[in-house]
Amino acid sequence: MSELVELSQGERDALEKLEERQRPVRRGAVLQRENEPCNELFILRKGLMMSYVLLADGSRQILRFLFPGDMLGVSSAVYQEAPETLAALSDCVVSPFDRAALAEIMREHPRLSALILVYCQIERVALTDRLAALGRTSAKARVAALLLELRNRLRTTNKSIANAFALGLTQEEIGDATGLTAVHVNRMLRQLEEDGLITRESGRVTLLDERALGHAANYVNRYKGLDLSWLPPPRS
């Protein structure tokens, strides 16, 4: 949140209180399972996670990739059962907290409540983009958009990342996020390489022509162009 606004000391203290407890989550472990009771929310402190749903035919649709600093399970706060599964794509550390702690944040720190709303809306619009892409863009555009999204999200927590980054995903996981088979994902990655847009080596991807890649993907970075002038002032 401090990337968007300068937080007051009271706001920082409130957020730090949410992160007092820490829980390790091993790669491949499920933190929250779809359709099971959910009583906790989480802040991801370290690692990479994903949220997904299982479809009637047993296939998996990945909804979001989650990065350090993300608040996990917010949608679960309004349901008795979790609407999505949260699983670790790497060894992770999360900070669990209950709904009462979220209610206290909203009561005592209205600007933090507004910022939670801001992030929920960013995610909603990004999911809308993904939905439009699944229905209306080519396989190459979907994969290109996902590469740009991953790089931009990684950059929010590591400013040293330029155009090269560790992908951290299997081709099956990319396929489950873009509605493609692993074989099709591999073909699209090769095509992006042949077009001179990316290179791949030892699990790392380098974006060679970011502008052309963005044009091919019809990609919009939803973390830019924000208008936060309406946010309420912080409480001391």
From TrEMBL:
Cyclic nucleotide-binding domain boundaries: 13-85
Bilayer-spanning residue ranges: none
Location of the HTH crp-type domain: 137-211
Signal peptide region: none
Keywords: DNA-binding, Transcription, Transcription regulation
SUPFAM superfamilies, sorted: cAMP-binding domain-like, Winged helix' DNA-binding domain
GO molecular function: DNA binding; DNA-binding transcription factor activity
InterPro entries: cNMP-bd_dom (IPR000595), cNMP-bd_dom_sf (IPR018490), Env_Response_Regulators (IPR050397), HTH_CRP (IPR012318), RmlC-like_jellyroll (IPR014710), WH-like_DNA-bd_sf (IPR036388), WH_DNA-bd_sf (IPR036390)
Stored Pfam families: cNMP_binding, HTH_Crp_2
Listed name of the protein: Transcriptional regulator
Lineage: Bacteria, Pseudomonadati, Pseudomonadota, Alphaproteobacteria, Sphingomonadales
